[in-house]
């Protein structure tokens, strides 16, 4: 069996997750219609965003965000 290095594993997991996300939306839209699929997607994003933000904060070693300026610094640092 082939061994994957860290970058290859990261790429594989990212692609698998993106496929899962896309297929979830596609099938939700097929069953429920576009309006309901969008509504469910927005609800999922709303509940996921705080969890992901905390993970990114921890990974970057960024402390608690208490002001708009800290938020700007945090989001600017994510894309450098």
Outline the structure in words:
- It is a single chain.
- The protein is mainly alpha-helical.
- Helices cover 81% and strands 0% of the residues.
- It has three helices and no strands.
- The protein has helices at residues 6-32, 34-60, 68-78.
- The longest helix is centred in the N-terminal third of the chain and has 27 residues, at 6-32.
- The protein is flat, with a radius of gyration of 17 Å.
- The mean pLDDT is 91.
Low-confidence stretches: none
Number of strands: 0
Q: How large is the count of helical segments? A: 3
Average pLDDT, to the nearest integer?
91
What is this structure's SSE topology?
Elements: H1 6-32, H2 34-60, H3 68-78
Helix pairs in contact: 1-2
């Amino acid at each position: 069996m082939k061994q994957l290095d860290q970058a290859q594993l990261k790429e594989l997991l990212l692609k698998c997750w993106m496929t899962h996300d896309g297929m979830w939306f596609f099938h939700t839209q097929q069953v429920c219609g576009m309006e309901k699929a969008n509504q469910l997607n927005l609800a999922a994003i709303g509940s996921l965003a705080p969890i992901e933000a905390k993970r990114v904060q921890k990974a970057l070693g960024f402390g608690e965000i208490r002001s708009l300026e800290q938020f700007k610094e945090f989001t600017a640092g994510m894309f450098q």
